[in-house]
């Protein structure tokens, strides 16, 4: 029997027995809903982490020179930690040396930070991140300014007490009034607000807008780091190869400055997007390991249900099988009829699951901070799993149907 | 002899019923020629159903040979038998055996699906067959929407549609009242007379058997009489 005929027959069967069919495809439905939903959300997170978080906040084609890795995932030995903490820290002199060594198309910046107290009038907060940076920092880290301006090179070289504040800081301290030109006290030092950054949003529920950014040469340097010490030297190139080239140049400069012999390892660290993404990669790997388990359980349960429904169908329709056989249906005709029916059931469930999974992902995307992005491959995988479960679950019932003796089947009441 | 459509030689069929062996057929030699209209009679348990199943290629004999259209079918595999049933035999059953969920048209198309006939031709041939049994206006009805006589006519159309060598009718009027029975017998007689269709019919009713031109009677698994009516 041609496959189109068998599918049409199977769809007719599903229509004729709606409730029973619904129960039998519920397993495949749930499994595929999970599959699409979770993959979409993890995918969306992944894209968000790579493009928005790593790309926007960290910067594309950007690396940061640090004295040790700042983003670690916990699998660091105590010895390693002690070795890292013994390292020499980066200085402003290192920053100037790096800047001199690199070409004019490279953006070079510096950053230091600490959590400090900020006071405006009667309001105060102890959990504001204060950053001391160079004027290039805003361009490197892609901060957009909503109102006002960033620093001028002069303000940085003179160590002027000017500050760009995050949107949440602006709301907290100034509410409806315009913060521009107002004075705030950062770690006790008076600063004039020259700009308000556009909101960066939240990451895992943590606000990215609770900061104040001032020239690294201004007074907050006393509050964020020991004298002359900086936390990071940031370099951004126009392209990835340019960045990699710059990274090796900086490596050479630093090795020379620190008098490292060829046998000695670097006693400094390059932080790239990959470091930031490392944590996420590990996290998503866990999700991707748990996912097949979840999906697998639902599909196995769904398959067992389908198998039972099909066994029932075979015994209910024994006479039909007998009639078909008397009219010339071969074993393989009956076999394929029931296989296609089982596969149609589970594929219908899978298709419903795909639709529901997509809706679920859209809902999560709209209603929660988690982003979701639907991938074509997960949809194809869903369909393939749907068909697969049906065929596997249908083999036994279908082969029982195919082996029925036509005479006994015709006599069956 | 050479042009025998059905030829059996010493056909036997035993059934294992628990510890006992039931010998349903004990050596049947039967020849049926093209264009014959044969009734097979006999009391219940005489083996006529068993013979019907063997002739209809639904079953294989315990021993003996059976040639259908000159081809020995007694040793064929299941799938080969299915092919023979599809091409050579059209069944008409006592209980009609139509698919309840399918329309008359689809029921008639069914054997053509297994014959691998394309959809368009299938539809045309099924419509033609239904029209020939007087059901041109009932094609889209389901069996439950048809009377007993109409259902049996759908079954006859289904048996005809593959243009088989033989129509095997197993108690075709067993579930019908006498008026409808006459109606069905007329359809069969028509097929035999005008389309030279070979018909083998199992029945236990003498007045039904009287429609045939030859009556074979079975008794205890053997042919006890084989009589031919003079006039057709």
Order of SSEs of chain B:
EEEHEEHEHHHEHEHEE
Strand content of chain A: 15-25%
In the sheet with the most strands of chain A, the strands line up as 3-4-11-6-8-7
Overall pLDDT of chain B: 92
* Strand arrangement, major sheet of chain B: 6-7-8-3-9-10
Biggest interface: chains and residue counts?
A-B, 22 and 24 residues
Highest CATH level, the class of chain B: Alpha Beta
Q: How many beta strands in the DSSP annotation of chain B?
A: 10
Radius of gyration of chain B from the CA trace?
A: 17 Å
Q: What structural class is derived from the secondary structure elements of chain A? A: alpha+beta
Helix content class of chain A: 55-70%
Q: How would you sum up the major sheet of chain A?
A: 6 strands, mixed, barrel
Largest sheet of chain B: 6 strands, mixed
What's the SSE pattern of chain A? HHEHEHEEHEHEHEEEEEHEEHEHHHHH
Salient structural properties:
heterodimer; A: 413 residues; alpha+beta; 2 domains; six-stranded mixed beta barrel; two-stranded antiparallel sheet; 14 helices; 14 strands; B: 232 residues; alpha/beta; Rossmann fold; six-stranded mixed beta sheet; four-stranded antiparallel beta sheet
Describe this structure in words.
The complex is a heterodimer of chains A (413) and B (232). In chain A, helix 2 (18-58) crosses helix 12 (331-367). Chain A has 413 residues and is α+β, with helices and mostly antiparallel strands. Chain A is built from 14 helices and 14 strands. Chain A has helices at residues 3-16, 18-58, 78-86, 92-101, 137-140, 153-158, 167-174, 221-224, 240-257, 273-316, 318-326, 331-367, 376-403, 406-411; strands at residues 62-66, 90-91, 107-120, 123-133, 145-148, 162-165, 183-186, 189-197, 202-203, 206-207, 211-215, 229-230, 232-236, 269-272. In chain A, the strands form three sheets. In chain A, strands 3-4-11-6-8-7 form a six-stranded mixed barrel. A two-stranded antiparallel sheet of chain A has the order 2-12. In chain A, strands 9-10 form a two-stranded antiparallel sheet. Chain A folds into two domains: 3-53 and 278-411, no CATH class; 88-267, no CATH class. Chain B is of the alpha/beta class. Chain B has one domain (35-61, 76-228): P-loop containing nucleotide triphosphate hydrolases (Rossmann fold), CATH 3.40.50.300. Chain B has helices at 48-55, 78-88, 104-114, 119-132, 148-160, 178-195, 206-209, and strands at 4-17, 20-33, 37-41, 63-68, 71-72, 89-92, 166-170, 198-202, 214-219, 222-228. A six-stranded mixed sheet of chain B has the order 6-7-8-3-9-10. Chain B has a four-stranded antiparallel sheet with strand order 2-1-4-5, with helices on one face. In chain B, strand 1 and strand 2 form a beta hairpin. In chain B, helix 3 (104-114) packs across helix 4 and helix 4 packs across helix 5. Chain B starts with a strand and ends with a strand. The chains are: A alpha+beta (413), B alpha/beta (232). Chains A and B meet through helix 1, helix 11, helix 12 and helix 14 of A and helix 2 and helix 3 of B.
């Amino acid at each position: 029997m041609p496959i189109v005929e068998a599918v049409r027959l199977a769809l007719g069967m599903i229509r004729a027995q709606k409730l029973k069919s619904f129960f039998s495809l519920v397993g495949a439905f749930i499994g595929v809903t999970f599959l699409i939903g979770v993959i979409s959300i993890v995918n969306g997170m992944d894209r968000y982490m790579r493009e928005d978080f790593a790309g926007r906040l960290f910067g594309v084609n950007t690396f940061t020179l640090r004295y040790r890795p700042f983003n670690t995932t916990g699998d660091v030995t105590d010895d390693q930690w002690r070795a890292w903490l013994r390292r020499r820290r980066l200085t402003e002199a290192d920053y100037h040396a790096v800047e001199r060594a690199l070409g004019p198309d490279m953006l070079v910046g510096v950053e230091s930070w600490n959590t400090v107290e900020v006071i405006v009038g009667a309001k105060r907060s102890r959990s504001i991140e204060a950053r001391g940076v160079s004027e290039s920092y805003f361009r490197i880290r892609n901060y957009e300014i909503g109102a006002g301006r960033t620093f001028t090179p002069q303000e940085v070289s003179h160590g002027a007490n000017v500050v760009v504040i995050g949107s949440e800081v602006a709301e907290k301290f100034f509410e409806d009034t315009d913060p521009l030109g107002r004075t705030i006290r950062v770690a006790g030092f008076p600063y004039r607000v020259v700009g308000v950054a556009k909101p960066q949003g939240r990451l895992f529920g943590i606000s990215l807008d609770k900061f104040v950014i001032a020239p690294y040469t201004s007074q907050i340097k006393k509050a964020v780091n020991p004298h002359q010490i900086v936390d990071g030297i940031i370099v951004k190139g126009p392209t990835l190869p340019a960045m990699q080239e710059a990274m090796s140049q900086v490596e050479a400069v630093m090795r020379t400055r620190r008098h490292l012999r060829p046998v000695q390892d670097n006693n400094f660290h390059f932080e790239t997007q990959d470091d930031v993404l490392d944590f996420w990669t590990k996290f998503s790997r866990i999700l991707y390991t748990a996912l097949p388990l979840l999906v697998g359980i639902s599909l196995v349960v769904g398959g067992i249900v389908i198998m039972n429904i099909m066994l029932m169908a075979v015994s209910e329709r024994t006479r039909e099988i007998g009639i078909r056989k008397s009219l010339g249906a071969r074993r393989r005709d009956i076999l394929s009829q029931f296989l296609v029916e089982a596969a149609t059931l589970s594929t219908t469930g899978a298709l419903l699951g795909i639709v529901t999974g997509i809706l679920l992902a859209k809902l999560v995307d709209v209603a929660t901070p988690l982003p979701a992005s639907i991938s074509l491959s997960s949809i194809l995988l869903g369909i393939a799993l749907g068909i697969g479960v049906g065929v596997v679950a249908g083999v036994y019932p279908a082969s029982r149907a195919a082996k029925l003796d036509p005479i006994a089947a015709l006599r069956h009441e | 002899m050479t042009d025998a459509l059905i030829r059996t030689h010493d056909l036997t069929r035993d059934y294992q019923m628990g510890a006992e062996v039931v010998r349903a057929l004990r050596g049947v030699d039967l020849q049926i020629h093209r264009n014959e209209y044969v009734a097979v009679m006999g009391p219940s348990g005489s083996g006529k159903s068993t013979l019907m199943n063997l002739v209809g290629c639904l079953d294989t004999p315990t021993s003996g040979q059976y040639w259908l259209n000159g081809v020995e079918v007694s040793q064929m595999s299941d799938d080969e038998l299915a092919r023979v049933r599809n091409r050579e035999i059209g069944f008409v059953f006592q209980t009609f055996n139509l698919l309840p969920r399918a329309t008359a048209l689809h029921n008639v198309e069914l054997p053509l699906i297994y014959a691998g006939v394309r959809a368009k031709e299938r539809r045309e041939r099924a419509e033609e067959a239904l029209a020939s049994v007087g059901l041109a206006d009932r094609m889209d009805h389901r069996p439950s929407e048809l009377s007993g006589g109409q259902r049996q006519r759908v079954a006859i159309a289904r048996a005809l549609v593959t243009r088989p060598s033989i129509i095997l009718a197993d108690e075709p009027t067993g579930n019908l009242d006498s008026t409808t029975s006459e109606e069905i017998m007329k359809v069969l007689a028509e097929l035999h007379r005008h389309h030279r269709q070979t018909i083998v019919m199992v029945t236990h009713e003498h007045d039904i058997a009287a429609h045939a031109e030859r009556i074979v009677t079975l008794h205890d698994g053997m042919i006890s009489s084989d009589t031919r009516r003079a006039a057709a």
